[in-house]
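Encode chain A's predicted structure.
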Amino acid sequence: MQPIYFGKSGRQLLGVYHPALVRRPGNAAVLLCYPAVQEYMRTHWAMRKLATLLAREGLHALRFDYHGTGDSAGGAAEGSVARWLEDVRAAAAELRDQAGARRVSLVGLRLGAALGALASAGGLELKDLVLWEPPADGRAHVSELEAIERISYENFNVRTVSEPEELLGYPFPAALRAEIEAIDLRAVSRCAADRILIYASEARPEHEAIRAALRDRAGRPPESHVVREEAADRQEGVLLSSRVLQQMAGALSGGGS
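Encoded structure for chain A:
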């Protein structure tokens, strides 16, 4: 596990590179895209474990913080979908260089899945595009985050006290809200990926809508995989599961789906 900084001077991004721990033909590599900052802490363990599993399977992996999040450059209020799409492309290029890979695969969780799909639809060449609990509708996604905030405050027996342009304790400027709410994966058609896979903890109409809309390079719809959760707490759900991590790692390494 190697922390690295990459990207343009003045707006460098922090990444954590997990080199492959075993040799395998080619230089397979997987880029991991986190969800929105509001879900970062709840998903960090899962993304780190997935990177470790991939490295053990002989795949190089890179996870990174978007501009204005985590330890990357930029203020917390400077995030934007357009800038984060640039970050995804920059991270893919960095991973190709680090791993010596011609192309990479991408796993995106929640908002990270939407960013991955948009980047690939915009021309980012991918081997596999894995959409993990992807939000079809950005407006519904923001509403889900607001519901999580309400539940969180209720669990602590306090009233909701978010400041304007804040969500779940993190800055959420109106411009960023509008950009995220404008995301609609049902309006995205073909991606520059050889294969698209959707992973979810339950069958949901929004995932079927994405499957009906998206096509891979060959014009095929995504493969859909429902992986039931071990976690009893549905609010955490897929974010705490090991089963889905193992299945995704197996699929990406060619060991199964």
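Residues 196 and 222 are 5 Å apart (CA to CA).
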